[in-house]
Design goal:
The protein is mainly alpha-helical. Helices cover 89% and strands 0% of the residues. The protein is built from 1 helix and no strands.
Length: 107
């Protein structure tokens, strides 16, 4: 692309042609600058959206961690309940054995 500088020199017909070319170059550079500004703005918008998505991702990760923690707590509670039920079952088995042996003695 031609450099965006004004190089109109000379006089007469050639000076006029140079002036026209310089004007066209100025218009071209103006449009190019506008396009660059628009692209820069869109790039900024995309960066902002990317940041927002990253933030949402962080929030979801945090919620996932909280759910994992709850799941761990529930598993721990369930394990404790199973242990307690297992202990009660062992006590009942022991009592059943005692009652069974007492019944045999009385016969």
């Amino acid at each position: 692309a031609p450099p965006c500088t004004n190089t109109s020199k000379g006089g007469g017909f050639l000076g006029s042609k140079r002036g026209t070319l310089g004007s066209e170059r100025g218009s071209f550079c103006s449009v190019l600058g506008s396009d660059r500004d628009i692209l820069g703005s869109e790039r900024g918008t995309l960066g902002s959206e990317r940041g927002a998505l990253g933030s949402e991702r962080g929030t979801l990760g945090s919620e996932r961690g909280a759910l994992g923690s709850e799941r761990g707590t529930l598993s721990s509670d369930l394990g404790s309940e199973r242990d307690a039920l297992g202990s009660e079952a062992m006590i009942l088995d022991s009592e059943r054995v005692l009652l069974g042996s007492e019944g045999k003695r009385s016969i």
